[in-house]
Amino acid sequence: MLIKSSSTASETAAASALAEAGTALMNKVVVQRVQSPTFQISERIRQMIQNAELRPGMKLPPTRALATQLSVDPTAVHRSLAQLVKEGLLVRTPRVGTFVAEPPSKLRRLAFYHRPTTPGHFGNFDRALLTEITRIGHQSGFSVEMFSDTRKPGISADEPHPELIRHARTRWIQGVVCSSVSPAVVKWIASLPVPYALMSSADAPHTFSWGAEEMVERVVKQLVTRGCRKIGAIVPSRVFEDSRATPRELAFIRTLTRTLDERGLTINRDWFGGQEPGDGPIREPQMAEFGFNAFNRIWERCAKTKAGVPDGLFLWPDILAGSALMAIGMRGIHVPRNLQLVVHANAELPMFCPFPVDRLVFRAADTASALVNYIRGQLANKELPSRTLPMHIETHAS
């Protein structure tokens, strides 16, 4: 909003703000002759706005005064400011002046950034998430633009996506949603000049995930309700503490230990299949094989011990669970009489299961709603919601 007043105090404040803008521009905008002055001026003012060195509502010096300060032709200044007006970064009021625009408060266009872990791969949940965000956009009046990063991993981790960053700088997009992107790997995400939200297990600003503690507590409670006393799990992560465990893995391990202990149950290493010390990460293309082999190892190992086989297992995620269920069927194990299962499932991605199992359900619709509401909250400078995504237990008929 532009402030106009006839009072002496207002005029003094306006003159002070004008002088501040002029000084900032003189100190920060240095025109070199190797590039177009128009490009240099517009690029530097754009950066100053993004870095809050020029604040919303701040009035810029007149074109001729700014041209004199920068020792350039007034035409170059006029063209550079006109470009920034076109981008929505500046606003001009006839006979009043040029001002830094207020940031957009309404979501009109949202970017969906996807960085595949395997070239050409677009996961089923990511696809469902994009579909749900697009559906919300149709209902709420904003469009969704997809940016798939096909560059080599080393480049996409270190260098911003050119089209995405350009559209963010010009405010063509007002927010960015990132699917399965780690801010620890893709560090440039944090420098986006628009609000962003991403799916990641990392404990970092603007990240959303399903809480490891809540997941463990819900699963253990359900298996105990089913009468289980020997509870295990197959997950593609570390299930026992070591020096390389991530904060999320530690949260899973410690919550599991505490939750079982509170119920008078013990942890038996033989009942768990996970990432072993010294192993590298288990990638998505490897999970089906991992789930099948992990279950067979558990059953063969436990059949020879005094403690025996587990009577309750948690299988996560769904792409791992399917192959573990195959191993269970091949061994002729009766579910649920001899083995109770809680299996992760995505609501929008039906998974065939030949056994009666309980399901820990994640919904892409819940995730899409949380991410979009977070972007809207940032645009409106509102208190931001919880970044822990909801989950649900769906039980089978006993």
> What's the architecture of the largest domain, going by CATH?
3-Layer(aba) Sandwich
Helix percentage: 40-55%
CATH superfamily of the largest domain, called what? Response regulator
Class by alpha and beta content? alpha/beta
**Biggest sheet, open or closed, and with what strands and sense?**
6 strands, mixed
Task: Give the tally of structural domains.
Answer: 3
| Level-1 CATH class name of the largest domain | Alpha Beta
Rounded average pLDDT = 88
Q: Give the strand line-up of the largest sheet.
A: 9-8-10-11-12-13
SSE arrangement, N to C: HHHHEEEHEHHEEEHEHEHEHEEHE
CATH-defined topology of the largest domain: Rossmann fold
Task: Assign an overall shape.
Answer: elongated
Please summarize what this structure is:
With 398 residues, the protein is an alpha/beta fold. The chain is built from twelve helices and 13 strands.
Describe, in plain words, how this protein is organized in 3D:
By secondary structure, this protein is of the alpha/beta class. The protein has 3 domains: 8-100, Arc Repressor Mutant, subunit A (Orthogonal Bundle), CATH 1.10.10; 109-208, 3-Layer(aba) Sandwich (Rossmann fold), CATH 3.40.50; 212-362, Rossmann fold. It is 41% helix and 14% strand. The chain contains 12 helices and 13 strands. The protein has helices at 8-28, 37-50, 63-70, 74-87, 124-140, 153-158, 162-169, 212-225, 247-262, 287-302, 318-330, 364-379, and strands at residues 90-93, 97-100, 109-114, 143-148, 175-179, 196-199, 207-208, 231-234, 272-273, 312-315, 340-346, 358-362, 392-394. The strands form 3 sheets. Strands 9-8-10-11-12-13 form a 6-stranded mixed beta sheet, sandwiched between helices. A 5-stranded parallel beta sheet has the order 4-3-5-6-7, with helices on both faces. It has a two-stranded antiparallel sheet with strand order 1-2. α3 (63-70) packs across α4 (74-87) and α10 (287-302) packs across α11 (318-330). The longest helix is centred in the N-terminal third of the chain and has 21 residues, at 8-28. It is elongated.
